[in-house]
Every structure is written in structure tokens, then in C-alpha cells.
């Protein structure tokens, strides 16, 4: 006898509940493997890697630092639609539906195995989730297909036993919620050692302290952020869907490769025993559009990278060294390639351990990250650092270079109007037009502002805190009633004027003058 017609809503609910059960079981299993092995994280990472650079840029522009949350929600939405369809299919073809539910888990396992640094154990959470999803779908659909015992007559068309289905559905969802919660708690417990290692870390005082920030560096204009960006407000742009939480006691850094006469393996204790340098450095993301928010200034503490390379016997290409690229690798597999010549040219390129007087936050690379003034982050600022390998640009393309970005990317001269905001409605009279300008490792010598295409007017600069940080600026504008366009341009410390031509961020950073349009009411 063919199965009785089933309620489509109930069938879809069965599919959704089975998917939830599978994800919860996988989350629980991932707590015993590693967070990156959870299927949503693994699939999300694979999607990020496969996404064209232009789409990634659109996501950063559209969603900012919430891009990873949007991606995860998008994957969950697609999975929910697939799960609901699988439930409806399973009512008519039970084995096919269960096989499809299991196949989705197998795809998650394949994604997990394809992640950098993955081992065979990384497939286990998705496989466990596949088995649970298929089993729960089988149980729920069996009840959906079962006629109510007190309804109809033998051989007739009977409704399903809704009460039995409801009880089983509630039990499945409840058990899944408990399993998912347990997985999250166990995962948090697993990272407790990392959290404790950061909390217990006491940074030594710098052997080379940074000079005090000049009193006039922060102009304290309302609408312009502080000269030093708090760690909690510092931008974050990376591909990690789950922020790595590394126990400082188990962290190791390996330095090896072409031209390395003495390979090194260092612990955090080894690094902290070396002379530490403190330096104020502004970082900027290459994805930052003209006038964008992905730039911040902080006081970094770390070991000079050039000193470490020389200790290992490395020579820059200008001195006959065979390697022109330093490839930094993160614990999550990210690779970032930096010119060896730049790192060793005398600037304070650091293996940073501290940020604004405290150990690095997890989101910004704890326990150790790279910071190289004058280069965009994608060619210099590797977080969660675990390996440094000397090679050549001809022999190896790092992660972003394989995705159409330039091999080498010095920061371009940029300026930004922070106040007034675009489309602000202002009162007539004196208005403070203010913002920041940066050209790391060249410095800023001049900022000019103009209104409505008129003559350029020189803004007042905040005091310089070296050549590696941004400078604040302010220009008093006599605003008359009407609609006005304000523009800004900067000149770097070598006399280079910020170009007017607008260029996109790809392949090596945006150019163009930032402008805002405001209204001044009568």
C-alpha cells in the first residue's frame, strides 16, 4: 500500500529538524577535534576561498566587519531550504531523502578536509552530523507517513498521527539544542587555556620605548576619533570565520627557507626574552575605499623582525640574499608575502606581542602577529603567526596574490573627511572640517581642503608622531547657505601629492580625493 498523503508543512519541518540535529551533533563532535572542523565553519571557509575578489570587495563594502556573519547566515539559509526540500522528498522516497541528508554531511566533511592544516579527524564532525541527520529524518518521516490509528477506514486516505509527530519533533529539537549548547560550552572550555594564557601574560617593558605621543597630535575635534585607536574599535578584515584562540604555552614560530643559515624555532617565552621595541604604527587594509573606515592607529610592542632574520643568517637581496619574499603563515592557513628588502631596510617591522599596552587581543592575532609600517595589511600583517619562510616572488604566490591582488603593495597617500558627515545639515557660520591623513613610512607634510571646486586651502595639522602614523587635520570653513561639496587631498613627506583619479581597491589599493556633500540651511 502506498504511503498516505502527508502534510507538506510537517514534512518540511521534519527536514529542518533533521538538519538542526545534524549541525548540533557536528558542533558537539567539533569540540573534541577543533572549532574549524565544524561544518558551517568549514564550508564557509571554502566559500570564502572560492569567492572572486570582486565579490569579496562588494561584501566588505556592503556589510563591513559583519561580512562573516552575513556569509554564515546565508549558508544557513541555503541549508534550511535544502533541508525543507529534503523532508518533502523523503515522504515519497524515504531512502533517497535520507541519502541526500547524509550526502550534505559528506560535503561538509570534504570541505573540512580541504581546509589548511586539516587532518583526517577534521572530517569526523560532519560525518557524525550526516549520520544523525539521516537517522532523525528517517524517524520523523516515518511518523509523517504513518496514518492516525483511529481515523478513516482500512485502505482509505488517512491523516498522519499529528500528536505522535509533534512529540517526536519536540524531542528531536530539544535534544539537538542540548547537544549544540554542550558543544559550544565544551568548545569554550577547550579554549579556556588560551584565554588564561593571555590573561596571565605580563609583557616586559620595552628596551626601546616609543616616545610619548605629542600633546598636539590629537586635535580633539568632535567627530574625529582619538589619535590612538582603542583595540575594541580597531578594524578587523580577515578570512577567519572562527577567531583562532591559541594557548601561548604551546605556540611555536618556525623560521626557515632559502638563505636561512640557522633555522629557528621560537616559543613566546623566547621572543619575550629578546629586546622589545615599541612603535606607533597606522595600519590600513587594501580593501579600504576612498574615505573608508578600515584604517587604525595603535602602539605596538614586539621584536624587530630584521634582527631576527639577521640572527638566522638572512641577507636582503641588495646584499646578495637569495630570497626576496618572506611568506608568513597563520595557524588558520592564511599566507601573506612580504618583500624581504622592505622588512630589512631599517623600518620597525615587528613581530608584535602587544597592542596599546596590553597583550594582543585574540581578534588581532594573539599571541604574535606581524606589523610592517608602510605596507597594506594583506602583504604584511599576518595574524596568529606560526611560520616564516624565505622564498622568492617568482616561486610562490601567497593567498591574496593568487586571487588577483598585487604581489607588492606600499600604502598610498590618503586623506579622509570625518566631520562634517556626508549629507549633514549645518547651520551657517564657522564649521570645523576635519579628519585624518596617512602615508605610512613617508609621513604627511600638508593637507588641503576646498569647497565647491574653489582654491585649495591649507589645513592645520596635528603634531606628527613619526612618519608611520596618520595625522589629524582641521580647516575652519565659513559656511554659507546652500548645498556644498568639500574635498580633501594630502601631500606626503616626500612631496608626493595624493592623486585625484579615482581607482578601485583592486589590485593594490584605492586612489582619489575624498569628498562629502553637505547642506547649510539659511
The gist of it:
Helices cover 32% and strands 21% of the residues. The protein is an alpha+beta fold.
Separation, N- and C-terminal Cα atoms: 82 Å
The Cα radius of gyration reads 28 Å
Let me know the largest β-sheet: 5 strands, mixed
Number of helices: 11
By DSSP, the count of extended strands is 19
The average pLDDT score comes to: 92
Low-confidence stretches: 1-5, 152-158
Percent of sequence in beta strands: 15-25%
Q: Secondary structure elements and their pairing?
A:
Layout (H helix, E strand, L loop, with lengths): L7 H23 L8 H12 L2 H11 L3 H26 L1 H20 L10 H22 L16 H29 L1 H9 L52 E5 L6 E3 L1 H5 L4 E8 L10 E10 H7 L13 E6 L4 E5 H4 L6 E6 L2 E2 L9 E3 L13 E7 L22 E6 L5 E2 L2 E10 L5 E8 L5 E2 L1 E2 L9 E9 L2 E11 L21 E7 L2
Parallel strand pairs: 1-10, 12-19
Antiparallel strand pairs: 1-2, 3-4, 4-7, 5-6, 5-10, 7-8, 7-9, 11-13, 13-17, 14-15, 14-18, 16-17, 18-19
Amino acid at each position: 500500500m502506498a504511503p498516505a498523503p502527508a502534510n507538506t508543512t510537517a514534512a518540511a519541518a521534519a527536514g529542518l529538524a533533521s538538519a538542526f540535529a545534524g549541525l548540533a551533533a557536528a558542533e558537539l563532535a567539533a569540540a573534541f577535534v577543533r572549532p574549524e572542523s565544524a561544518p558551517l565553519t568549514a564550508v564557509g571557509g571554502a566559500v570564502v576561498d572560492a569567492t572572486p575578489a570582486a565579490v569579496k570587495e562588494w561584501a566588505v563594502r556592503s556589510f563591513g566587519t559583519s561580512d562573516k556573519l552575513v556569509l554564515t547566515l546565508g549558508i544557513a539559509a541555503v541549508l534550511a531550504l535544502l533541508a525543507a526540500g529534503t523532508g518533502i522528498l523523503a515522504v515519497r522516497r524515504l531512502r533517497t531523502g535520507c541519502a541526500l541528508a547524509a550526502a550534505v554531511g559528506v560535503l561538509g566533511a570534504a570541505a573540512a578536509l580541504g581546509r589548511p592544516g586539516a587532518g583526517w579527524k577534521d572530517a569526523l564532525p560532519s560525518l557524525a552530523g550526516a549520520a544523525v541527520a539521516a537517522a532523525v529524518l528517517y524517524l520523523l518521516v516515518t511518523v509523517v507517513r504513518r496514518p492516525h490509528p483511529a481515523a478513516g477506514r482500512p485502505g482509505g486516505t488517512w491523516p498522519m498521527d499529528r500528536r505522535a509527530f509533534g512529540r517526536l519533533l519536540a524531542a528531536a529539537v530539544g535534544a539537538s539544542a542540548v547537544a549544540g549548547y554542550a558543544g559550544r560550552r565544551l568548545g569554550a572550555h577547550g579554549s579556556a587555556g588560551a584565554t588564561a594564557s593571555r590573561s596571565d601574560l605580563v609583557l616586559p617593558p620595552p628596551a626601546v620605548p616609543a616616545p610619548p605621543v605629542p600633546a598636539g597630535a590629537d586635535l580633539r575635534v568632535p567627530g574625529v576619533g582619538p589619535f590612538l585607536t582603542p583595540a575594541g574599535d580597531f578594524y578587523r578584515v580577515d578570512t577567519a570565520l572562527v577567531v583562532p584562540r591559541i594557548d601561548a604555552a604551546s605556540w611555536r614560530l618556525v623560521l626557515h627557507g632559502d638563505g636561512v643559515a640557522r633555522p629557528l624555532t621560537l616559543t613566546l617565552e623566547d621572543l619575550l626574552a629578546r629586546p622589545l621595541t615599541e612603535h606607533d604604527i597606522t595600519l590600513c587594509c587594501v580593501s579600504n575605499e576612498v574615505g573608508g573606515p578600515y584604517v587604525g592607529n595603535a602602539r605596538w610592542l614586539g621584536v624587530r623582525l630584521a634582527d631576527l632574520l639577521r640572527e638566522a643568517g638572512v641577507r636582503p637581496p641588495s646584499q646578495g640574499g637569495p630570497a626576496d619574499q618572506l611568506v608568513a603563515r597563520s595557524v588558520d592557513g592564511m599566507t601573506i608575502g612580504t618583500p624581504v628588502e622592505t622588512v630589512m631596510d631599517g623600518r620597525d617591522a615587528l613581530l608584535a606581542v602587544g597592542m596599546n599596552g596590553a597583550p594582543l587581543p585574540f581578534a588581532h592575532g594573539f599571541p604574535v602577529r606581524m606589523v610592517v609600517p608602510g605596507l597594506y595589511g594583506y602583504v604584511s600583517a599576518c595574524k596568529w603567526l606560526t611560520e616564516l619562510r624565505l622564498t622568492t616572488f617568482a616561486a610562490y604566490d601567497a593567498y591574496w596574490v593568487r586571487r588577483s591582488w598585487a604581489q607588492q603593495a606600499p600604502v598610498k597617500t590618503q586623506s579622509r573627511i570625518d566631520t562634517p558627515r556626508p549629507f549633514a545639515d549645518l547651520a551657517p557660520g564657522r564649521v570645523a572640517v576635519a579628519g585624518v591623513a596617512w602615508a605610512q613610512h613617508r609621513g604627511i607634510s600638508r593637507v588641503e581642503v576646498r569647497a565647491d571646486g574653489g582654491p585649495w586651502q591649507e589645513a592645520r595639522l596635528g603634531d606628527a608622531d613619526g612618519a608611520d602614523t596618520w595625522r589629524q587635520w582641521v580647516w575652519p570653513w565659513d559656511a554659507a547657505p546652500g548645498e556644498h561639496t568639500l574635498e580633501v587631498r594630502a601631500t606626503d613627506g616626500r612631496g608626493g601629492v595624493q592623486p585625484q583619479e579615482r581607482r578601485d581597491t583592486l589590485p593594490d589599493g584605492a586612489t582619489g580625493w575624498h569628498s562629502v556633500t553637505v547642506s547649510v540651511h539659511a
